[in-house]
Structure formats: C-alpha cells, structure tokens
Amino acid sequence: VYRYNVSTQPEHTEGHGKKTPAEPHFLFIPTLHGPQPVCPSLFTEQTITPLKNTKHLLVSAFMDQRVKGFDVRIIGMFHRTSIQPLHCLYCCSSHLGGITPAKVLQHADHFGFPFGATDVMCQIPKNCEASHVTLLTQPSTEDVSDLSWIPIKNMKTSGKEEKMLNFTVCISNLFGDYSNVLQFAQTLEMYRLLGVNRVVIYNTSCGPDLDRLLQSYAQEGFLEVVPWPIDKHMNPSRGWHFPEHGGDIHYFGQLTTLNECIYRSMERSRYVLLNDIDEIVMPYKHDNLMSLMDALQPQHPDVGVFLIENHIFPKKHFDPSGKFHLPQWVGVPGINILEHIYREDPARNIYHPYKMIVQPRLVEQTSVHEVLKYFGKNYKVPLDVCRLIHVRVALRGSLTMEQLNVDKRLWDFQKNLISNVDKVLGKLEFLVT
Description:
Glycosyltransferase family 92 protein, Glyco_transf_92, glycosyltransferase activity, transmembrane helix, transferase
C-alpha cells in the first residue's frame, strides 16, 4: 500500500524576485509493506534517458536540499504540453524504496519550442539510503523490470571529498561539423592562463580535427566532454527562434546543458562561468579571474550572479600590422583571435546580452543570459573591470573602422598564449613546419 498526500499551496516569492515552489506537505510517508524487492539492474550510464510512458527525457539527478521539503532534483527535457503527475521511486541500498510524489517545475524560458528544460523535485523516504532514482506515471511498482534508473549525484560520502576547484567553465553544445580548432585551442589556453581549473563541454558532434583536440584536453583532465546525443531522441533546433528555426528544442538543448553543468559543478567548484566557446570572460584590471573575484566578492557579499557584458570583435576586421599572422598557424582551421583587435560598442537601445560568473550553490535555474531562480543578488560588473571578448561575425556590420574601438587586451598574454597553443597543436601535428 502506498499512501501520500500533497498540499496544493501556490508558489510564493521571496527576496529579489525569486519564486520558490511551495513546500510539499506529506501527510503520510510512502512505504513498502512486506519483503522489499531488489532493484533492477538497469542502471543507465546514458546522458539522455527516455522516460517510459511519456514524451519526456531525463538527464541527471542531484541531491539538492536547498528548497525546503525536497531532497532530489531531476533535470530533464519535457514535452511542455504533455505534463502529467509523476512519482519518484528510489533504489535504497540495492532494494526498492518507497514512492514519493514529484513536483514538476518547467523553466520559464523555452523560446516557444515544444520541449523545454524541466526540473522534477522529490523527497527521499525515511530510512532510505538512496543511490538511484526513476520516475513513474502511476504510484505502483508492479512492473519495474524495464525502468531506467539514473544515479543521484552530489551525494555526501565520507572520505571521498573532491578538492574544490576555483573556476569551471560550462560550454553548452557542440553540434554539426564545427571545426574551429585554432580558436578553440586559443580559448582553452586563455582560460588556463586566467586561472580556470576545468572546462565542461556537451558534445553532440564536431569535425574530426576538433575531436582530436577534445580528446587531447580530456586525457590531461582539463576538459570534461559530456556526450550529448540529443539528435537520437528528437529533432533539435539550430537556432533560438521557434517560428524561424523550427525543431523540438532550443539550440540542441542549450538551456538543459547549462543547468546540468551548474549542478554537476555545484559541489566541486567555487565559481562557474556560463559562456560559449568563442567567448572569453576577460578581467581588465586584474591578471586573472581569482584576483577579479577576490576584489568583487567582498564588495558584494550577497551576490551570487555576476553579469559580464558581451562585446563583439568582428572577425572580418584584422590588425593591420599582421604581427600575429603566424606562419605555423596558417594551416590550422579556425579563427586566430589575436588578429582581431577592433571592438564594437553595443547598441544600447536594444536588448544586449550578458554572460555570467555564478556561485553555483546560489543558483536554482538559469537561462542563457540571466539566472531565472536564485538565492542571492546579481550585479552587473563595470566594463572597465571585466567584459566578454567575443570574436565572431559582426553584430553591427554597418559600423566603419573609425567607429570601432581598438582593444589589445589579449596581447597582454601573447607570449604564454602562443607558446602554450604551439605545444598543444604541435603535439597533435597541426602546425606547419
């Protein structure tokens, strides 16, 4: 017999405009009567797992007790018009545990696509040392033989604490035949010079040359490559605007991967940077990111989200001196960021995006350019302190050279950057000799 009841209290809003879900009121703790069956052995190692009897996809589960009344947060991609009541079933010390009602929280940003990033919140039954969780559409365990169980991450385990990193960069998605090898290597080496400890990237597909580079960085431990076969489960969009681009979900599930990366990094990184592979969060008054945050955080102790304004360096404009048009890089596919020193001023009369440095423990849900739910405050970092260097196609293509700003901040790192990039590319035999 399974017995439960959940109150239907509405969501309420706490400080700084953050909405928090209503606390579930359990009148009865769900229990299993009689001998407890052993958990099925179908523990999935996949990063995307279809949920039986639904259109939904599960990604990962994390211990998260920051919202009162809940213990576990399951991150997924749900079909937004097919949400039904769900129930959490746990594997407790290799035996099935009780069933608890689930609360489904759709993220506010979905850009009109049929699928959107979704959280499922559950409570772990008493006396259950939960290791894995699955979702049920009916509160019954009559047939659990073909359920897919996902591990619960971020569990506190004695004697196995991982060293806390200072900075992790979360890069949402690689897809198509992306093969910008030179810019990728330059960007990762700039991250390293700025004090980043780990980069996490979600890979659907990329070109063979870039794949070799990814594997090299992954082998040394600096890069964590998360397989992201979303195209095997749905038709992901290559754009953000549903009427224009079509498809099932925004940018190959970008919002889901950014949220998953925050939770993946929550217990192992003090700060998380949320930006794209062609963007560098660049301090302008400090030599590295740690010095930047050591200055900002004491001034703003309640801030958990630091907003960094995006500044585009059009790839069509080159440094006229040609001093960084290096012969050894001529045959390497991709953009040489050192050659692009002209910076656009944003058009401030229209929406202008930011990227973020966040304290992951203070973030509950994020979008691409802003955090949706959080526990602290946010702060826009002044442009003279830090800004985003974004080498890409011009956004304001009508601007003349005279209307652009000369910005050679990257050149301050030229010696170490060139040397480090040469070592990486030379090891993989990309360099022209």
